[in-house]
Amino acid sequence: MRVRIKGVLKRVESLLRQHPHLRDSDEKLICNIWAIDVKARSLDIKSMPAMEFLKLFSEKYITHPESIRRSRAALQAKHQDLRGKTYNERHSNQTEIVTDLTDLKNG
After folding, report:
1. b/e map of 9-34 (b: 16 or more CB within 10 Å)?
2. How far, rounded to the nearest angstrom, does the alpha carbon of residue 101 sit from its chain's CA centroid?
3. How far is the CA of 25 from the CAs of 35, 69, 76, in angstroms?
4. Which of 26, 45, 47, 52 falls 20 to 30 Å from 101 in CA-CA distance?
5. Can you give the pLDDT of all 107 residues of the chain as single tens digits?
6. Cβ distance 36 to 11 under 8 Å?
7. Residue 27 in contact with residue 20, Cβ under 8 Å?
8. Would you say the pTM of this structure is higher than 0.90?
9. 28: nearest Cα among 45, 41, 15
10. Can you say how many angstroms the Cα of residue 67 is from the centroid of all Cα atoms in its chain?
11. How far apart are CA 84 and CA 99, in angstroms?
């Protein structure tokens, strides 16, 4: 069965609640979701050839990393208790980044 978008939000929330160290690392969060995806197919992530994983990903049996990242961002925006240690730091840089992007665009 292919990955369902609605299920991504629930799985991300569950992991963020159970494992606070994932709140500050999209890479670690994504890897945990992917390990769960592979295990759900009764496969062993530790012995899986990379080509097999890539095939699963290309056929949409592995959750897209952007869906995971967006789910994490949405949950953290809505639920303060799911925010990590770097949440405020990341958001304090937001104005500077928008200014830099605007300057690049206007060139």
Report:
1. bebbbebbeeeeebbeeeeebbebbb
2. 24
3. 16, 10, 13
4. 26
5. 666 667 899 999 999 999 999 999 999 999 999 999 999 999 999 999 999 999 999 999 999 999 999 999 999 999 999 998 887 677 666 677 677 778 777 87
6. yes
7. no
8. no
9. 15
10. 6
11. 25
What are 65's two structure tokens? 């990393």
Q: Which two tokens stand for residue 27?
A: 């890479």
Assigned token pair, 22: 């994932």
Place of tokens 């980044």: 97
